[in-house]
């Protein structure tokens, strides 16, 4: 079975609909055909100021959400990044292969550092994509399921893998980004030209999976749309409606064309009301399962420890090969 790997940050008390449709939904389906490794990347979460207690809580909530969304810990290796020290160890080697200028061109760092102000930005945020490259390369995956916003980081990962291979001998698999076109970028409900994101300016544009379903339904009903009347997919002229159609299609399993036909001649209000119902139907059982997992944190921790053990078997083998190739003496 070809391997896949991906990670998600425990930086909020809930994943949002962009995380789910852009990435996590693919994580779940890829389990059927791939040897999957999925991790909660807590080391990435400390690249910005954080509260230790919140991080601990959010790491468990993240794992619980992944399980509730359908990640099967028997078929997939589900683990927490900091439980596998090889991530930090490989990251150092990768940092020494990364050009300073190359890292400076990462747009996510540029955007985030503008938002935070130069004095508060950490070196960890700067080297974030290099740690991400290490996260991936350790497991030699063929593909990495992510949203569109991660494309540039994936390119860096590929460049670093190729560079290492050509300098020190073939060690890494050069991974492909697995980006599903339709849902590669889910947009903010209030500003449908910007990506839905936890750091969005208004919470009204963001659907959190664990939010009160009534609140989420209301956000859908208040989503910004244009002044026209037609329900058609036209991202350039009708960004709001197109975003709602994409979300509706992904959550219902019906094609956008089918939805366009169904809503022909009907109003935006009808579409929003129905989508709100579909959303509530989706999140309600997910929330119940999350609660079950969180009710037994000892069991959850045990499951994550088992995942880390499996991940380490693979990661330590890769790291050993890397250390050997770069010329580190193995301990006698
Ligand atoms: N709006 C989105 N559409 C599609 N995919 C998205 N992803 C995030 N937002 C969207 C994908 O979710 C996965 C996990 O991303 P992450 O761990 O980087 O999560 P995040 O960065 O905390 O999420 P945000 O909201 O995007 O954070 P900020 O506001 O900090 O930038 C990734 O595969 C990502 O592509």
Give your account of this protein's structure.
The chain is mainly alpha-helical. 55% of the residues lie in helices and 7% in strands. The protein has 13 helices and five strands. The protein has helices at 17-30, 42-45, 52-69, 86-95, 100-104, 107-116, 123-137, 151-168, 213-221, 239-252, 256-262, 268-295, 297-326; strands spanning 3-8, 35-40, 77-80, 143-145, 176-178. It has a three-stranded parallel β-sheet. Helix 8 (151-168) links the parallel strand 4 and strand 5. It is globular, with a radius of gyration of 21 Å. The two termini are 36 Å apart. Adenosine-5'-tetraphosphate (AQP) is lined by residues 8-9, 11, 16, 18-19, 22-23, 146-147, 149-150, 185-186, 195-199. InterPro entries: aa-tRNA-synth_I_CS, aa-tRNA-synth_Ic, Rossmann-like_a/b/a_fold, Trp-tRNA-ligase, Trp-tRNA-ligase_bac-type, Trp-tRNA_synthetase. It is an enzyme of class 6 (ligase). A motif ('KMSKS' region) lies at residues 195-199. Its main location: cytoplasm. It holds the Pfam family tRNA-synt_1b.
Determine the structural class based on helices, strands and strand pairing: mainly alpha
The set of bound ligands, ions and cofactors reads: adenosine-5'-tetraphosphate
Number of helices: 13
The string of secondary-structure elements, in order, is EHEHHEHHHHEHEHHHHH
Binding site for ATP: 9-11, 18-19, 147-149, 186, 195-199
Protein name: Tryptophan--tRNA ligase
Binding site for L-tryptophan: 135
Organism: Streptoalloteichus tenebrarius (strain ATCC 17920 / DSM 40477 / JCM 4838 / CBS 697.72 / NBRC 16177 / NCIMB 11028 / NRRL B-12390 / A12253. 1 / ISP 5477)
């Amino acid at each position: 079975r070809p391997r896949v790997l991906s990670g998600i940050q425990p930086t909020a008390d809930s994943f949002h609909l962009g995380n789910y449709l852009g990435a996590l939904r693919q994580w779940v389906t890829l389990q059927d055909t791939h040897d999957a490794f999925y991790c909660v990347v807590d080391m990435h979460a400390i690249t910005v100021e954080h509260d230790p207690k919140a991080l601990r809580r959010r790491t468990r909530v993240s794992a619980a959400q992944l399980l509730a969304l359908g990640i099967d810990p028997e078929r997939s290796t589900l683990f927490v990044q900091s439980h596998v020290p090889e991530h930090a160890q490989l990251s150092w080697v990768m940092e020494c292969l990364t050009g300073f200028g190359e890292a400076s061109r990462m747009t996510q760092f540029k955007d985030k550092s503008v938002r935070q102000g130069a004095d508060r930005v950490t070196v960890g945020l700067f080297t974030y994509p290099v740690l991400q490259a290490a996260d991936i390369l350790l497991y030699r995956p063929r593909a990495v399921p992510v949203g569109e916003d991660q494309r540039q980081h994936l390119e860096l990962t590929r460049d670093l893998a190729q560079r290492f291979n050509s300098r020190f001998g073939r060690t890494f698999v050069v991974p492909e980004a697995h980006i599903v076109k339709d849902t590669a970028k889910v947009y903010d409900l209030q500003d449908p030209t910007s990506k839905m994101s936890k750091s969005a300016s208004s919470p009204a544009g963001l659907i959190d999976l664990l939010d009160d379903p009534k609140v989420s339904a209301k956000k859908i009903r208040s989503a910004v749309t244009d002044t026209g009347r037609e329900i058609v997919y036209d991202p350039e002229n009708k960004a709001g409606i197109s975003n709602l159609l994409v979300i509706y299609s992904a959550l219902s399993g019906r094609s956008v064309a089918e939805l366009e036909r169904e809503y022909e001649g009907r109003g935006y209000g009808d579409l929003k009301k129905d989508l709100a119902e579909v959303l509530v139907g989706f999140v309600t059982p997910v929330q119940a399962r999350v609660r079950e997992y969180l009710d037994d944190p000892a069991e959850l921790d045990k499951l994550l420890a088992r995942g880390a053990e499996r991940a380490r078997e693979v990661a330590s083998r890769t790291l050993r090969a890397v250390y050997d190739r770069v010329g580190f003496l193995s301990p006698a």
